[in-house]
Every structure is written in structure tokens, then in C-alpha cells.
Amino acid sequence: MADDKSPPADNPYTQTHLVQSGDTLSKIAEKYYGDASLYTKVFQANRDVLSDPNKIRPGQKLRIP
Amino acid sequence: MKKPSFWVMAALTAVVIAGCQNQRAPAEQGVAAAESSLTTIRDAAMHYAPDQLQAVDAQLASVKDGLAKGDYKGVLAALPALNTAIGNLRDTATAKQQEADAANDKAKDAWTPMSTDVPKMVDAIQSRVDILSKSHHLPKGVTKDSLAAAKSSLDSMKSAWSDAASAATAGNFSSAVSKGQAVRDQASQIMQSLGMTSG
């Protein structure tokens, strides 16, 4: 999203999530934001490792802005 | 007993006056030197040993009063103690200044990592607050109150951080670290309240 102001990728205080089997970005957004529709925030913050919001792999460490 | 003659009394008086005049110059010079010596350390003394400076000022005022009254002998007798007091004041102020400088150097070392860490904490909180503000529901463990508190704290943290950075810019690293640590503590609390500390 154009108005995203996610912390830079090297911010050590940005929370991280280790992707588990069965995780989706929506589930992750639900867990951290209480709202699955905010999955795009997670996707935008991890564009360097994710090319498709529907494709995440167990073991990936995602930034949660 | 025969009274001393007029001429004897006059001669004695002349000797006493001459003696006083002999003491006047060293008394005046001694007071001027003491005052000058005190002037060179006054700023440091005011900052690091104000009570001791006040006592020395009182001592100097007393000596100058003696000088004004022509008590040169008394002035000369009081000068060694005054000079010792000024020397002690110099030693105290110098020691305390060195102590403060050392503390400031240590604080400068602490400020360097803090100056990059704390803004990152604030940025991370700002980002989370912005996102949670758009959320229709809050995540487990995060309440409306904690989100509202985080929002209002962000402004005060930014303001406090600005003060800390200004202190650092002015070279007052002890103050900068003290203020910066307060922001860091507050940021840690907020991160905890927003559930940002668990993976």
C-alpha cells in the first residue's frame, strides 16, 4: 500500500513471526492485528522475501510491522 | 614615673605610622592577588562548589573590609588562610569538574548506541499503532485502552527524545542518556502492552 510506513527492514525492534505449517498471511494478521484483512501490511513489509501473498513457506521469518 | 616627652611620643607615632605604611602595599597587593586568583576559578567554583565559594567570598569580603579600615597587619595575617581557602576551592572545583567530565565521557559512549536504538523502537511502535488503528478488532492481549495509551505516549516520547537529542547536541551526554533511557523504558512498556515482544 502506498501509505505504508513500515519500519525499515533492518529495524531490530520490528516483531518477527516464524512461519509454521498451515499459516497464511491472513492468519498471521489475525494473530498480530486482530484483523485478517490487514494481511497486506505483512505482505508489504516482506516484499523482499515474498512475491505472492498466498505463497509462504514454513520456516520463513516474516517481519510484523 | 616621668611621662615620656612629646618628642619621644611623636617619634614612636612616626615609627608606628611608617610601619603601617610599610604593610599597606603588601596588604593591598596580597588582597588583589587573592581576588584575581579567585576570579580565575569563579565560574568553575560556582558550578561545582557553590557553598565553598560562598565561604571563600565571605572570607575575602572580611579581608577587604580590613583593608578599607587600614588594618594592614590584620589583613596580612588573614591572607595566608584566604589563599589556602582559595587553593582548596580550586582543588575541589577541579576534582569535581574532572569527575563530571569523566561521567559525561562515559555517558557519551552510552549515547551512541542509544541514539540509533531508541528511534527504531519508536518507529516500530508508530508502525504498529498505525496498523492497529485500522484494525476492526484488536489482537488477543491488546485492549482499546492500551492502544489509546500507546498513541498518546508516542507524542510525549517523541518530544522527550527531541529533548534528549538536543542535550547530546549541546554536549551534555549525561542528561541526554538520562532522558533517552526514560524514553527507552517507556517504549519497552508500550511494546509489551501492544504484544510486540513475543514472536
Radius of gyration of chain B in whole Å, from Cα?
A: 33 Å
CATH homologous superfamily annotation of chain A: LysM domain
Q: What is the H/E string of chain A?
A: EHHE
Globally, the shape of chain B reads rod-shaped
Termini separation of chain A: 13 Å
Give Rg of chain A in angstroms.
11 Å
Order of helices and strands of chain B: HHHHH
Structural domain tally of chain B: 2
Helical region count of chain B?
Answer: 5
Which percent bin holds the helix content of chain B? over 70%
Low-confidence stretches of chain B: none
| CATH fold annotation of chain A | Membrane-bound Lytic Murein Transglycosylase D, Chain A
CATH architecture of chain A: Roll
Number of strands of chain B: 0
Oligomer: heterodimer
Number of strands of chain A: 2
Helical/strand content category of chain A: alpha+beta
| N-to-C span of chain B | 111 Å
Residue fraction in strands of chain A: 5-15%
Overview features:
heterodimer; A: 65 residues; Membrane-bound Lytic Murein Transglycosylase D, Chain A; 2 strands; B: 199 residues; 5 helices; 0% strand
